[in-house]
Structures are given as structure tokens and as C-alpha cells.
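Q: Could you fold this chain for me?
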Amino acid sequence: MKIHFIGVGKMGLPMAGHLAAAGHTLTVSDPCEERCELAQEQGLAVVSDASAAIAAADAVFSSLPHDAALRAVAAQVAAAARPGTVYVDTSTVSQQASTDAAQALEGKGLAYLRTTVSGNNKMAEAAQLTVLVSGPRVAYDQMLPLLKALGPNHFYLGEAEQARLMKLVVNLMIAQTSAMLAEALTLGRKGGLDWQAMWEVLTASAVASPIVKAKSAQLSRRDFTPTFTVEQMIKDLDLILAAGAASNVPLMQTAMTQKLMHAAVVQGNGLDDYAAIIKVLERGAGLNPKL
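A: Sure. Below is the predicted structure, expressed as C-alpha cells.
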């Protein structure tokens, strides 16, 4: 299959690489010259004329940073793609932006799959993403062999924006897990518990979820190298709180977590891993965040 992939950032580049490795004819484009150079270094075919590549493709994938980018790319796909092309967007965006994209594509003979992915860039590199899809079922069945290159778990959720909302539900729980860890670990540390010992107990206990175990590998060493930054999590929390407001769901704990993320930015940790809100709680408790 001929595929054009738009957006080769930290998530898009490994996903594009897996599609190429699966034997498909793949081209990529990105407005960032540095990302294009990195894609070329990894053996991917970078093109400067995205519209021409879209016109030649059987499927168009995208991994984009925000709502405005999705609206712009959807308009480009609507203008350039041939009828019968499937557009697969993997971005984390608002339901409204996704609906706007669907409206731009309507009547063009194109299928639009909202294909959100759960997992960080390391999981993307390892082809271990969880793939959440909504849109036309026929298009999902057609694209499933390609989606299997991204990860082992795939869920079809409905005809419209269900995948967008499900991604926010998952990310809400990820953000709240970091807030839970921040309070629990700060309480333990202030009471004199050893940092590494706490992680050993937590990862062997009833609260040892996959994300807690994954975080322990880094955080037990006080390593806040980002898999997903505080600033990126703020963007997702904005989307989550907006979805809550639109549905009249009071997300009070999530709103508090967002405030912790903003405090982390103010305190200089905006580009650290989102788990750096642990440092915010530690500072508030009079602890030195530099063990």
C-alpha cells in the first residue's frame, strides 16, 4: 500500500518507521527541517510536496501537535486526496477539532479514522502502542493490518469521536496517577521512609499498575528525563477539562492536578517528565527535591 505520513515527531517517526518496515511504500513530510533530516537518517523517503504525496497515496497518516494542525492537514487532505483514500489521524486533539476535520472531509469520498494511541515514545519505538479507533467500520477493517504494525492491542469504539474521548479518559487516569504518587511519596519521604524502598513496596503491592511499574524504573533513581513533559500534560489536561465542561462532568481532582502541573512549570520543571509534580509536593512539604 502507498502511504504518506504527515508529522514525524517523537511519536510519528517511529510509527512511520514501523509502517515502512511492514513493507509498505511510504513517504513522509514535516514542517520541521530537523525532523525531516532525522527521518532521512532512518531511511525514510522525505518529500517536500505533501499535496502531491497525498494525491498518490492509498492512505494518509498524521501525528500532529494540536487542534489547529489537524484542521489544516484535514483541509489539505480534503483538497488533494483521491476518492477512496483513508485518512488516519493519530493525534491527541479535542473532539470539536476532530468533528471539524470530519466536516472538511465530508463529501470528498474519503474515509476518516480517528486513531488515537496510548503509550509514550518509547512504546511507539517498540511497537507497543494501544490503538483506539473510531470512524467507518469498513475503513477500520481495511486499515487494521497497518494498525497492527503500531502495537498489539486494537479497539474499535464507534463511528464518530469515541476514540478521541477514550484517549482523554486514559490520559486523565495517567495524570491522576502522577498526582497520587506525588502525594503518597512525599508523605512517605517526609515521614522518613527510604525513597527506593518505597518504590520496591509500591511495585510489589496492590497498587502496582503497569504505569506505576513503568515509572518506577526511572523515578526510583530520581530520574525525571521526560517520556511526556509537564507542558505536554498541561495541553492534555486542558482538553480533558474542556471535555468535562462540555458534558457537565465536574472533574475537580483533575483540575487540582492541572494546578500542580502549572506550579511545576513556574518552579522550572516544565520540560521534565510530568511526574515532576512530585517535586512540587516535596517543596510544599519543606523537602529538598534534589536527593
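A (continued): The chain has a mean pLDDT of 96.
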